[in-house]
Specification:
359 residues; alpha/beta; TIM Barrel; 2 domains; eight-stranded parallel barrel; three-stranded antiparallel sheet; 17% strand; binds dihydroflavine-adenine dinucleotide
Length: 359
């Protein structure tokens, strides 16, 4: 890709590099269409040695943890505009507007206020207030949505009991309003703590008040699913979005996918209402095929996808009469979430960089 003079200008200004090239191999058929999961290669020259950064999934996940880069990236109006593909806005009202549109297309939603790993109890308390307000606004507006929470957002890395109490306050309010709280799953250093807190909540609240997420890339997940459905518990199965070592997670995507199908079959056979969260046509087809073969009704489970990802599939599944829930993230702390979405599909960053560098 040739960098325009406008693109070079910002590189000179912000990085000191005098040359930047973005390379990627292309489909044989079309030079315009990069392979979906191929790493990008950035080559920069400072006049001295050339530096080359492979934008692999792990590099992007590393960058997602560098919050400081958000300010740098956010200087570019275009970058900010591109985030709106995956993030519904910065305020509850913007998320409500996005959810109204989804509802009109036959999809339900799940609110996600973006703010991971809070730094102190006061910040965690603010998150609780935000979620109480979301639950109130869902009732006031009549939109079809539940909420998803992250325990690090409620202080899990500060104090496990604090995270439990904060999550509990949200579940109390959701249960009172007849709504539902999904506890997202984060990196593997908090998997057990997340399951422990969920079990405490589940012991106190009903099946339809609170549910959890499991990730098929983790080796432990099939056993966790077997244990949790005995509670019983409502589970969202997804592949997993963090960078994990091979001791805990399958390094090979093929194993993650096989495990996904095994867990999906276990969940669908349990008679409990679960969430099948994926954009992968192979996982979706496996779910459709298994449910038809086993005579599991469409109403017995839901598909779930992320805001802005495979909107065509979202609409199609809803049109075909399947329950389709879209996870709608919003908030000022969009940077780590946005970078993880790029990591899932490095071709997205090609799109972002190409637009930024056009100047
Ligand atoms: P995979 O990554 O194999 O992608 C399959 C295909 O889907 C791609 O080839 C592409 O066509 C499309 N696609 C996927 N991601 C895309 C993107 N960003 N942009 C464009 N196209 C894309 N993770 C986690 O660790 N904890 C959690 O709690 C959750 N919660 C959650 C909720 C919901 C509703 C969803 C859909 C996902 C999550 N995730 C998650 C994220 C999940 O773990 C995973 O990272 C993504 O869903 C991507 O995996 P896929 O199953 O889509 O397959």
């Amino acid at each position: 890709m040739i960098v325009s003079s406008g693109g070079l200008a910002w590189w000179k200004q912000y990085s000191g590099l005098s040359e930047l090239r973005i390379t990627q191999r292309y489909h044989r058929q079309s030079r315009l269409c990069p392979r979906p999961n191929e790493p990008l290669s950035l080559i920069g020259a400072t006049g001295g040695p050339r530096i080359q950064i492979m934008l692999t999934r792990s590099v992007l996940i590393y960058l997602s943890r560098q919050e400081g880069l958000k300010d740098f990236a956010a200087r570019f109006r275009l970058f900010k505009r591109l985030t709106t593909r995956f993030v519904a806005g910065e305020t509850i009202e913007e998320a409500i507007a996005a959810i109204r549109e989804l509802n009109a297309e036959g999809c339900s939603a799940s609110f996600d206020h973006l703010n991971e790993s809070v730094a102190n109890p006061a910040e965690a308390e603010e998150e609780v207030k935000e979620y109480l307000q979301i639950l109130r606004r869902i009732d006031e507006t009549g939109i079809n949505s539940n909420v998803s929470i992250k325990l690090t957002q409620f202080g899990l890395e500060l104090d496990q009991d604090l995270a439990y109490k904060n999550a509990r306050a949200v579940v109390v309010e959701a249960a009172r309003r007849g709504n539902f709280v999904r506890v997202d799953m984060e990196a593997s250093n908090v998997t057990q703590k997340t399951i422990d807190i969920f079990k405490r909540l589940r012991a106190e609240f009903e099946l339809n008040d609170v549910g959890i997420v499991l990730q098929s890339y983790l080796r432990r997940t099939y056993a966790d699913a077997q244990e949790l459905i005995k509670l019983p518990a409502r589970i969202r199965i997804c592949k997993g979005a963090y960078n994990e070592p091979p001791e805990v997670a399958f390094p090979d995507k093929k194993d993650t996918d096989e495990n996904y199908v095994r867990v999906m079959q276990l969940l669908l056979s349990s008679g409990i209402y679960h969430g099948i969260a994926t954009h992968d046509p192979k996982m979706i087809d496996a779910t459709l095929e298994f449910s038809r073969r086993e005579g599991i009704p469409k109403a017995a489970f839901e598909f779930q996808m992320l805001y802005g990802v495979r909107r065509d599939l979202q609409r199609q599944l809803a049109k075909d009469g399947y329950n389709m829930r879209v996870y709608v993230p919003y908030g000022k702390h969009w940077y780590p979430y946005f970078m993880r979405r790029l990591a899932e599909r490095p071709a997205n960053i090609w799109f972002v960089l190409k637009n930024m560098l056009k100047g």
